[in-house]
Fold each of these.
Amino acid sequence: MMYSSVHIWKDARIFFKEAQSLSKEYQVDFYAIGSPEEADEYQTENLKIHLLKKRNRRKRYKNWIFLWKEIKNSEAEIYHFHDPELLLLLPFLRKKRKNRIFIYDMHENFPKALVSKNWLPKRMKRILITIVRKNKGLIFAEKSYKEDYQSIFSSMPTCDIYNYPLYQPNLPNNQMGKEVIRFVYVGRIAVVRGIWEMLHAVNKVSKTSPQKIKFRLIGQCEEELLEEIISYIHKHHLEDVVEYSS
């Protein structure tokens, strides 16, 4: 069972790189955010997609409760989860699933990232770091994470699965010979993920490069931030350069 209470189901790394790859050899029950009709065509005999409602932080606990019930009723042997908030369920779930394996997929440098999560109480931050050690395995989105925390991770199996696209050999380069250079960002759009650095760079290059450029943003974005991004695009006349889609 693979589950997240906040990530959209079509996340490039979680779904296309991990869930689909695992389903080639295992039965995967996949839980994430989205509308049921979007995912129908991606379901297979070994990959069942269960979609949750997107909620704000105050109501996100409803998704936690739903996942708690699903896990208790599940016959899965391995539970692969993605959100640091779901670590809070781990001590209780291990009592219910004593012989099961829980694996935490660390998308960011979690212990350090807790410092920037102002909405989490300090006491909860300490508890979450302690609970990380209760997993049977850890997956890292970047190699540097375990280098920072050898004392935490040295006692358990780890694996690196980066946020790179799956390798496709002999893929034709459709950009060859074209006058327009295209850049694409795929993932959650946020300040901490460098959205302003990317836009400033695109703005500068678009004004100085002899070649035309196109920059496509693909991913979920908070409404307030999206309004700021659109305002920036208009202010700097980037309507023909930057394109956004969720």
Amino acid sequence: LVVGIHNRRPWAYRDKDSNVVGIHPDVIRAAFAPLGIKDFEFVVSDFGAMIPGLLANRFDIIASGVAITPARCEQVLFSEPDVAVGDSLLVPKGNPLKLHSYDDIARNPKVRLAGGRGSENTKNAMAAGVPEGQISLYPNNEAAVSAILAGRADVTTLSVPSAIGVIDEQKVEGIERATPFKGLIKPNGQPAKLYTGTVFPKSSAKLRDAYNAELAKLRASGALKTIMTKYNFTDDEDAGSVTTSQICAGNG
């Protein structure tokens, strides 16, 4: 199979030895192996060019952190969700203020939250009740983390992949993810998260269905959790019972 990836940690990327690693290459290798598919050609593409590339038959599938959305469901087929990506908190080692939700921040007026200027994560924190007066805005994730390390902030909010990247790729000492973490809950009772899956062309429904059956076995056996843990995803990122059909219908 020719697989489109966008070379971004922790989704799918080439390591220092040019091997393709990441949560989604590992998941598809494990899911396709029982189907007799073990030979993959990984092709790096810009993120925005991956679905057009699939539609133009440059790839057979995409396995690189693509979120399932109603608009994309009109163009392509998605597997069932593998992981759910929401917000996360980075805190000093040991999480001295015991912050595990936006509510924890809102309830303690002394907590100083570093947020990304214009980021959805910061907007979610405010929507969850964190007062603007407790938030300082920074131009990027690195600046927000530096604020914690310098004692100018107590916590920062950023997406799960960004948090993993800060810890894994940038090797920042003295910082950890606050787990478990409860983010913004939407009016329908679902957490504000993006659900990712493997992407197939509309012509590959049978292959997608066979893949889904193997993905379900990986989840049931605990093998999916093992892969998630390898790339620093936690139980907070388990997709749970949310289905692709729900998300495609706008109910995810």
